[in-house]
C-alpha cells in the first residue's frame, strides 16, 4: 500500500498489514508541542530514519494505561491510529509464530519472530543482524534509547513502548537486537526514551 500522511505535520509513513492488524512500518517522527522526547544524540538528522524517542507519558499523551486489545489509546499517534497495548504486541508475535505460552513470558522469547520483524541487511542494523529477513514487512530499525541525558544502542537495539503499564513507575515494551532473532518482552522506567509504532484503528 501507499501508507498514509499524518495531517498534523505532513509526515508520510509506510504501513503494513500483518494478520488482522495494520502497523506503521516506520517509527513515529511526530514532534509534540509538549512532553519529553529526543532526537538520538540530539541530532535532528536521525529523526528521518529512526523517529523520535519518547518517554511513556508523552507517548500516551496523558492517557491512562490500557491492557485491552485494541488499546483504544490514541496517545501521540495520528488520528485514526493508536498506541498498541501489550496484548496487541502479543497478537503480532503469535501471528508470526510465537506460542502463546512464550508470548506471555518475559525476556527473550520465541525463535525467529524478531528476525521476521527486523529490516534485513546492515544498512541500519549492525552485523550480524541475526535472522533478519523482514518477512512481516514491519521493517524494525535499531533506534536505541534515551536514559537521563545519555543515548545508547543505536544500530544495535530497537525499543518500542506499549500502552500497558507494569506498575506506577514502569511500562511494558518490546526490544529487538542485532544478534538475536527473538523478541524481548520487558518493562522499564516510564521516564526513558523509546521509539513508538502505531496501529490502525479497526
Write the layout of secondary structure elements.
Blueprint: E1 4-5, E2 12-13, E3 15-18, E4 21-24, E5 37-38, H1 47-50, E6 53-54, H2 56-60, E7 81-82, H3 86-95, H4 100-103, E8 107-109, H5 113-117, E9 145-147, E10 150-152, E11 157-165, E12 170-177, E13 183-189, E14 199-200
Antiparallel strand pairs: 1-2, 3-4, 5-6, 7-14, 8-13, 9-10, 11-12, 12-13
Sheet bearing the most strands, described? 4 strands, antiparallel
Radius of gyration: 15 Å
Number of helix segments?
A: 5
Q: What is the topology, as strand order, of the major beta sheet?
A: 8-13-12-11
Low-confidence segments, given as residue ranges, are none
| Multimer state | single chain
What is the mean predicted local confidence, pLDDT? 97
Give the helix/strand class. alpha+beta
Instruction: Write the element-wise H/E pattern from the N-terminal end onward.
Output: EEEEEHEHEHHEHEEEEEE
- Beta-strand content estimate: 25-35%
The rounded distance between the terminal residues' Cα atoms is 17 Å
Please provide the count of β strands: 14
Range of helix content: 10-25%
Outline: globular
Amino acid at each position: 500500500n501507499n501508507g498514509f500522511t499524518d495531517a498534523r505535520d505532513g509526515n508520510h509513513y509506510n504501513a503494513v498489514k500483518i494478520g488482522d492488524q495494520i502497523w506503521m512500518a516506520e517509527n513515529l517522527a511526530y514532534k509534540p508541542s509538549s512532553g519529553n522526547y529526543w532526537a538520538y544524540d540530539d541530532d535532528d538528522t536521525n529523526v528521518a530514519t529512526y523517529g523520535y524517542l519518547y518517554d511513556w507519558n508523552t507517548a500516551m499523551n496523558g492517557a491512562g494505561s490500557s491492557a485491552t486489545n485494541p488499546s483504544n489509546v490514541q496517545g501521540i499517534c495520528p488520528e485514526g491510529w493508536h498506541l498498541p497495548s501489550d496484548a496487541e504486541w502479543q497478537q503480532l508475535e503469535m501471528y508470526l509464530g510465537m506460542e502463546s505460552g512464550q508470548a506471555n513470558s518475559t525476556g527473550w522469547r520465541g525463535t525467529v519472530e524478531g528476525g521476521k520483524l527486523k529490516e534485513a541487511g546492515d544498512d541500519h542494523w549492525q552485523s550480524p543482524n541475526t535472522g533478519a529477513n523482514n518477512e512481516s514487512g514491519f521493517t524494525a530499525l535499531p533506534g536505541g534509547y534515551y536514559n537521563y541525558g545519555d543515548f545508547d544502542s543505536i544500530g544495535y537495539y530497537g525499543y518500542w513502548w506499549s500502552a500497558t503499564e507494569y506498575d506506577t513507575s514502569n511500562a511494558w515494551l518490546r526490544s529487538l537486537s542485532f544478534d538475536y532473532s527473538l523478541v524481548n518482552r520487558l518493562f522499564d522506567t516510564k521516564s526513558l526514551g523509546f521509539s513508538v509504532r502505531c496501529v490502525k484503528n479497526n
